[in-house]
Write a structure and sequence with these properties.
The protein is an alpha+beta fold. The chain is built from six helices and 14 strands. The chain is globular.
């Protein structure tokens, strides 16, 4: 049984390797040394606001958006390699009183000009590719994602929401032979070509977030990464590698996407919840 929106507060996931929503950075020059606190929650909130997603800071680092989604950013690693190069890895945990009371999480890996820039870039890409899928999962009619519904004779139904695809290819105009991909790549392809690997999630009644990533280099070597609810899913990675091996030779290519599998009634229930019906407090 899910909590009422008014008394819901998420619990941090034990499987999330994140190390906290704030941390200290130490600096030193010829004259002095000092440290500064990096507040990931404030940075995520600022990054989301720039894309029109309003929310407020709650306790313990959580952010609550106006649609009832709870977000918790945490640091994994940060490396400042030079005056204009930095790399970061973070996690963002997502929860919702009715849609996802148990929560889930996903990783963000990014590079930027400095510490703040790399962290903000990772958060911004997450907002574009992952967050919009959960926002659509709250509604009966998706606004950002392509969707696919499955219905069984006994009345059971499941829905798959296909988030925006990050797709890069070195030679997009290369000719494709008849034995290669039968049609142009679409938002459904990563999932529908690896369908069997996700039967447990399709056949369950829970909400699942799925990260799909596949790549093929100029020599035809393939690699893939797949996680379900933040945890490695080897069957998915194996299926993605097999799929990428069938891609036409167009040089270096990668495809990355976030997918949510749910039951349509979950969206209707979640749509009834508005945390801030009269606006978002600061």
């Amino acid at each position: 049984m899910t909590s009422k929106p008014s008394d819901f507060f998420p619990s941090r996931l034990a499987g999330n390797p994140g190390q906290g929503a704030s941390f200290e950075m130490s600096y030193r020059n010829s004259e002095r040394s000092w440290s500064e606190t990096v507040d990931l929650s404030a940075l995520l909130r600022e990054t989301l606001a720039a894309r029109g997603h309003q929310g407020r800071l709650a306790r313990d680092g959580w952010i609550v958006l106006s649609d009832g989604l709870w977000l918790l950013p945490q640091i994994l690693s940060l490396s400042v390699e030079s005056a204009d190069r930095a790399n970061s890895s973070t996690t963002i945990e997502v929860a919702h009183a009715r849609l996802l009371p148990g929560g889930t999480f996903e990783f963000q890996h990014s590079a930027g000009d400095d510490a703040t820039d790399t962290l903000a870039r990772g958060f911004d890409l997450w907002a574009q590719v992952d967050l919009v899928v959960y926002q659509d999962a709250l509604h009966k009619e998706p606004a950002h994602c392509t969707s696919m519904e499955m219905n069984w004779q006994e009345g059971r139904a499941r829905r798959v929401l296909f988030g925006p695809v990050a797709h890069r290819v070195a030679r997009p105009d290369a000719e494709v032979g008849e034995a290669e991909e039968a049609h142009a790549f679409c938002p459904c392809c990563l999932f529908t070509n690896t369908w069997d690997a996700f039967k447990p999630q399709i056949e369950s009644d829970a909400v699942h977030g799925v990260r799909l990533y596949a790549a093929r280099d100029a020599q035809g070597v393939v690699q893939a990464d797949c996680r379900v609810d933040g945890e490695d899913w080897p069957a998915g990675a194996e299926a993605l590698r097999a799929y990428a091996a069938r891609w036409p030779d167009r040089g270096l290519e990668f495809r990355k996407q976030y997918v949510v599998i749910q039951s349509p009634p979950q969206a209707v229930l979640a749509q009834q919840e508005q945390i801030f019906p009269r606006g978002v407090p600061s």
